[in-house]
Fold this protein.
Amino acid sequence: MSARDRLRPPVAATAGTLLPGFADPVLDAQSAFRAVLEAMARPGRVQRLPRPPAPPAPILPAAGAVLLALVDSATPVLTDAGAEAEAWLRFHAGCPLADGPAEADFLLATGTPPPLAALRAGTDEDPQLSATLILQVQALEEGSGWRLTGPGIEREHRLRVAGAPPGFIAERTANAALFPRGVDVILCAGDRVAALPRTTRIEEG
Amino acid sequence: MSTPMPESGYNFAYLDEGTKRMIRRALLKAVAVPGHQVPFGSREMPLPYGWGTGGIQVTAAVIGPEDTLKVIDQGADDTTNAVSIRRFFARVAPGLRTTERTAEATVIQTRHRIPETPLSEGQVMVYQVPQPEPLYKLEPRRAETRRLHALADYGLMQVKLYEDIARQGRVGSSYDHPVMVGGRYLMAPSPIPAFDNPKMHMSPALQLFGAGRERRLYAVPPYTEVRSLDFEDHPFEPLRANGHCALCGARDTYLDEMITDDRGGRLFVCSDTDHCATRREEKAA
Amino acid sequence: MYVAVKGGEAAISNAHAWLAEERRGDPALPEIGTEQIGEQLTLAVDRVMAEGSCHDPSLAALAIKQARGDLIEAIFLLRAYRTTLPRFGTSLPLDTGEMRVRRRISATYKDLPGGQVLGPTFDYTHRLLDFALAAEGHAPPPAPEAEPGEDAACPRVTGMLADEGLMAGEEPSEAEPGDLTRTPLSFPAGRALRLQNLARADEGFLLSMAYSTQRGYGANHPFVGELRQGEVTVEIVPPELGFPIEIGEITVTECQMVNQFHGSRTEPPQFTRGYGLVLGRTERRAMSMALVDRALRAAELGEEVVAPAQDEEFVLSHSDNIEATGFLEHLKLPHYVDFQSELEIVRAMRAAASPPAMPPVMKEAAE
């Protein structure tokens, strides 16, 4: 990106800009980040976002909060959420839109996501240069469903995910085999989040 | 404790939001790859490099007005740098509570110790790290150590441990004794005494590490395997002073040695001032 | 009964009150003003701006006053302030060819287009303390001014050598240079980041590194092709306008060192360049930077990397005085805990080595 592009305002006013972002951009971003940090540190534990924004459909409040807390002009985002959602995101976060899955730091999938193998997995020296997939699902419940083990989990966490894409566990298992490279997934439903960092092993419940 | 007036003209917790987001993204990746050093765009802070700028930046990216912050240096809340950092956050983070009680804290920023009071799930430990690279004394070139971490090639460290055994007859460098995290990454636990290393293993708390000058941060998620490097025939055995605390009588805590006169008189007191005070209060009650 | 030392907070505020008192010095004497510092300690201000990476003479003067003249402390103050500033844009590259020259010398040609301009230099002063300066009210007579006759262009010496085919080409790049204040360096860093790092490196460190090359540690054979100092225009392109506008001018010093290069299988013998460009009238650092830049080009030019000044990771990792002084000075912080563990190890080793030579039994004070 050239210096001149960086100076350009991120977006023109469109319908998406009519909907507000965080009520308090500083403190709401902090509480959203803490929920995501907690989710990432304790995979499968469902966190509730205390003060999410009300993004345009089809972005769920949780996904909107995660994005506004984490993305900005330094992080290309790819999403299938449509023009209004993109405009909202660009207006409030100032993020560039990625050209394809391999260019995105963050992906927001409201429908079927691109294959995990198509996303950036980082390198062995820089495994942090990997994509984060924000995946919207219908519901997240603790206590039953998938059996999760790995760092952040004392013995086993159970997580029921309603509406995960078909074949997700198999794809995710293949991706986890790349460790330390790999994609990290943040699941969103309503105002709830749960995370599946690349270290988490998933077994069908 | 007197709370200084909030500093006007600065964002909540001092850092601008763009910097916080950059650190937050790096922290999430650090949690996802336990023990791996994530480079980050460390900023110049109003405190000097080497005085906790990494820990301060991590804390600033993490805390909110609903948090209760404890800051310790050498285990104590009243050491000058701990006081200075606590005052800094009291000035720049309106609403934030500070405490000296380990059990009350939601975020604990530390230099050189892990509290004696067991940590719990609601807590985040933030370690100030002077040197994040565990291999640096063996290989000062970071371009090379990055490669070694990528390959999980830690043969150098094994050689160092052999040398320790030959010279010292034991495994357990006195502090900053390297650990393996999740069986994959060799990690510097920061200059905590080897006595504290076992507290990192399967800790219920999230542990975050910030090295400002070296521009690296890393993490150990809760309930993650953290093994101090050793050999089967020379197991890791941390040392502590063979004494007891002159104030609370504890025989199981890490002790500071005090010189009481110039005739060889000395005594020991707990390095963890809160733990020691709590024990004395309990005794008195 | 032993009582733990308390009162860190009070001790800190008392220390800072004392510091403020010491800073002011004798209140019977007039207080020094930041404008005086800005006008009369200009080279200190320039160094603070250069190493603070922030062009603001009045803030630099304030920093010097606040730091009691400790320039590294002043640089730190300015850096810590700079880091909080929002960024409104990125300037276009400076055109030093269009510099309003105050000083311009070449050691390679006796005369050249644009001429030799000594400017306000310490060179050729006899370093005799001038006791007249100790007296108040000393105002020097105005310096004679040259006839404003030949307003000739002042072409660069390196350009003239290049026209003759004697200067090794350096591939121009349109790539956006990195920003070492935002992204941590990794190695190899590349020349753009190297020059960024050197431009704000500690002057003493740069000087010593440069000096080491002159004494044979990574020898190159430098000539001051040209040293120029003066004012250049800073321009940005506001996105709403789409064309460059001038936002001001700054004083810079540029040094181009010319070094012999023996040539290789693919390239004939020619000269190569070491480049220095720094904020302010900081000539020593521009020259040092140019020597170190050339030394760091060793690998690129197929020279053997044998000396510290040629080692990119070594030079760039240790050039920043804010990082260096912070880490050095952190040794003043309490290290009771680490020291205690070393004590235990040393005692255990001594006990194992020579049990009879144990120190006298430790007396534990009564509880």
Remarks:
- Chain B has a mean pLDDT of 92.
- Residues 17-137+163-228 of chain B form a domain with the Rossmann fold fold (CATH 3.40.50.11310).
- The first strand of chain B starts at residue 38 and ends at 39.
- The radius of gyration of chain B is 19 Å.
